[in-house]
Amino acid sequence: DQQVKQNSPSLSVQEGRISILNCDYTNSMFDYFLWYKKYPAEGPTFLISISSIKDKNEDGRFTVFLNKSAKHLSLHIVPSQPGDSAVYFCAASLSNFGNEKLTFGTGTRLTIIP
Amino acid sequence: DADVTQTPRNRITKTGKRIMLECSQTKGHDRMYWYRQDPGLGLRLIYYSFDVKDINKGEISDGYSVSRQAQAKFSLSLESAIPNQTALYFCATSVWEGSTDTQYFGPGTRLTVL
To answer: Which residues of B touch A52 (CB under 8 A)?
Structure first.
């Protein structure tokens, strides 16, 4: 059972436009969400996170939105740049007194078209 | 120098062989993890260790074993490799900061079992 889902395997966006990557989850107990970015031949790198007590977190060009009632989060990148071309994974965890583990989605490959 | 290193980076082996993948970190984190990535399945947790004396199974531990030799070292072994263990393997580290557990990944080991 895939508890974290990224239904779009790939996405292409023109340089300078907004990229929106989506993620859905089924476990309502998840209370912390993260986005990771992965380039070929490298490990995933942490990008941005959000706690379930918030509905938005912004860091430069990256903003994550959380809609708890819909069990949905999204990552907005604006403006998109060629260096943003990568695979993006969303991940979720539930607070368990320090026993947190991450559950990852399947990833979305973002391609920025110059 | 990279904070999380994995050796080897690439390995081809035959069915039935014993294989060890090694992970070292200089981040000083207590927590270490092993994941595998398969196309269309995202990252799945194999084993994790919250300190040197603590080893826990993840969601797909069958066919694997681990050893935490020191705070900085966490090895993954395939006792008798089989073709469906062909995958990209990632080691990660983290430190729990009271409510968050951001993980930092190594560059990955690509393992092919013939």
So the answer is: none
Residue with the two structure tokens 């994941």: B35
Q: Indicate the residue type of B75.
A: S
- Which of these, A104, A83, A84, lies nearest to A93 by C-alpha position? A104
Nearest C-alpha of chain A: how many angstroms from B113? 19
For the cut 60, the answer to whether the pLDDT of residue A98 exceeds it is no
Distance CA B113, CA B103 (A): 28
Mean pLDDT over each residue of chain B, to the nearest integer:
92
Residue B3 CA to residue B44 CA, distance in Å, equals 22
Please report the DSSP string for B12-57 in residue order: EE-TT--EEEEEEESS--SEEEEEEEETTTEEEEEEEEEETTEEEE
Asked if A105 lies within 8 A of B92 by C-beta distance, the reply is: no
Using only the alpha carbons of chain A, give its radius of gyration: 14
